[in-house]
Target: Homoserine kinase
Amino acid sequence: MAVFTPLTDSQVADFLSRFDAGSLVSLEGVPAGTENSTFFVTTDRRELVLTLFEQGEHEELPFFVELLDYLDEHRLPVPGPLHDRDGVALHSLADKPALLFPRLPGKHPRDPNLAQCRALGDALGRMHRVSQHFPGNRPNPRDLHWLLPMHHKVLVYLSPEDQTLMKDEVEIYQGFFDEAPELPQGAIHGDLFRDNTLFDGDRLGGLIDFYNGCTGDLLFDLAIVINDWATEPDGRLDPARYDAILGAYQARRPLVPAERDAWAMMLRMTALRYWLSRLLVVYVDPPAHDLTPHDPEQFRTVLLRRLEEGALPLPEARP
Model:
């Protein structure tokens, strides 16, 4: 159960009184999640989501509020946080930072169909097109600058073959991206897996959980999506889902030549990023709560496939 800080009805009713959102009808803890406490809140006027932030860098929360406000203002399918009667979104509840969001429709897609893939690619392309103008800044906490020092922490837990694989890959990425032209930058989601989206049938209800959001290479975000949404359990790319996502994305934001040149390498680097981060959780920095970590082997498998088979050809941008 991912409710690490229980709340009472009276606490939440008092919290709601700061907002123009109605009176509390029911409160339900949400079992999903690994870092924060989440609750479904029903008032006499609407359905809401209440999040208490249990860990992480709390001083960075204003960045997420500003990013979600910005994307919401540009009509992206994101949960723009509710602001109280004084215009303030970020509050404290039970001595934890707290945000209140509208509850978006839908559920996580386990096996996304092509219509869902196209909807996701379209939304991400729209988001990246406008996010290039977002004025906030938070450096990407999981890019190559993070890989360079952090991969040394897990080497002792790996086989000699995997140690060599990881060290060689990081060295290759450093050489490649040091010489490559700068890629288009903007605000990115940073963790847009299937379970960070909601679908009502084939309609995208929302992109959620922006707490890995940052500013950086837009291509980094897109590669994370492909390595989850268009990848089979054995690590192979699914051509139909791959083309559906990338075709819809490029109809909104065509990739520039430098991004096309870096595409195969970015797929490899983001696969290693998740292999490494999951190894760190298992061996170095276990979660603060009693939760089962994700299996690192999944993204080792993806990385090996990308090394063996490369990337599928990128579809051309439609005019």
